[in-house]
Design goal:
The chain is of the alpha/beta class and about 350 residues long. It contains 13 helices and twelve strands.
Length: about 350
């Protein structure tokens, strides 16, 4: 009888321990990728607020692509090229997309350092001046005497003198005021400014916010061969964790591919995670962006970067007097980490 009692007690204790272990294991599973390894915490910045053009990051998170690659990703709204570079290099974020031309200007003019591009998001620049009907702006020349708003570190604003020079207008006759990424379109709709710095894909959202027809002046009309957004990280991370960079890039590009293939789904995922998102406008932004993500140079592969094209971009900026020092493509891009065509 005593042996039976000891046996039952041992079995009861084993069952209890198993239940405790199971509960503990379920908690730990939330922070793993299913293979037993803990997920690496990563902070990612969007390019500019939370609009449809950045929905692909939320798609990668929602569909588990980041988790499969071994990451738990926190997505935060970015505030343009200059701010993103500072945040990534300063260690407050690991990755973020910046306009490559803006990055070249920052690096070549000594305003930033220690960052590196590892993939292209868009093969052509989407930078533009945006306005609405009724402001009297229909051509670049019409910008003279007008007031424009943008964030201080935005590529649209920083590249404007070069754009103006190539478009044949006097940039000193244009007034810029500071604005925030999420409120620029409201500022435009209020009539307090004549135009804003914006990407061309912002057209549907501008029209949804202002209730007016948008008018855009794309920089690509006068500046050819310029890339759009590229994914950056710090030189330290690229040097110390190259495989981690490749895994993150691959997961993000999976989200980009899905977002372009199904923009409506991507817009709904964005709206689910971010307040005040207009899913219709977000989906329309992604549809417009699709034509900028691939080009004849990149073929079918996403994310590729070509040294020759980057050299042309540098030459354009040098020719316009926008760079204080010369650069090489390798100073801003790690071609060993970038996807291959």
């Amino acid at each position: 009888m005593r042996r039976l009692t000891r046996t039952v007690a041992a079995a009861t204790m084993a069952t209890a321990l198993a239940l405790v272990a199971a509960c503990s294991g379920s908690d730990e599973a939330d922070d793993t990728n299913g293979g037993g390894a803990a997920l690496e915490q990563v902070t990612y910045l969007t390019s500019f607020g939370n609009f449809g053009r950045d929905a692909y990051a939320w798609v990668a998170k929602e569909k588990g692509y980041f988790k499969e690659a071994g990451f738990e990703v926190e997505i935060k709204p970015g505030q343009g090229t200059g701010s993103i570079i500072q945040t990534v290099v300063g260690g407050q974020a690991h990755f973020g997309p910046i306009d490559l031309t803006g990055g070249l200007l920052q690096l070549g003019n000594g305003e930033a350092k220690d960052f590196v591009a590892v993939a292209a998001i868009q093969q052509r620049t989407m930078a533009a001046i945006a306005t609405v009907e009724g402001t009297g702006i229909n051509t670049p020349k019409d910008l003279e005497g007008k007031k424009l708003a943008d964030t201080p570190g935005s590529v649209v604003r920083n590249l404007f003198p070069t754009y103006a020079r190539m478009a044949g207008i006097d940039h000193t006759k244009v007034t810029w005021v500071n604005g925030e990424a999420q409120t620029l379109m409201v500022t435009l709709g209020s009539g307090s400014v004549d135009g804003i710095g914006q990407f061309v894909v912002g057209q549907p959202t501008i029209e949804a916010v202002t209730k007016k027809k948008a008018v855009l002046l794309p920089y690509s009309n006068v500046m050819q061969d310029l890339y759009g957004n590229v994914l950056i990280t710090s030189k330290q991370i690229a040097s110390e964790k190259p495989e981690m960079v490749k895994r993150f890039t691959a997961a993000l590009l999976r989200g980009l591919e899905d977002a372009l293939a199904n923009p409506q789904e991507a817009a709904e995922i964005l709206a689910k995670n971010v307040e005040a998102v207009n899913p219709v406008a977000a989906a329309a932004e992604l549809q417009l962006m699709a034509g900028y993500v691939r080009s004849s140079n990149s073929g079918t592969a996403l994310g590729t970067l070509d040294s020759g094209r980057v050299a042309k971009s540098i030459a354009i900026l040098r020719g316009a007097g926008a760079l204080k020092s010369d650069l090489t493509p390798e100073q801003v891009i790690d071609f060993n980490l970038a996807p291959k065509s």
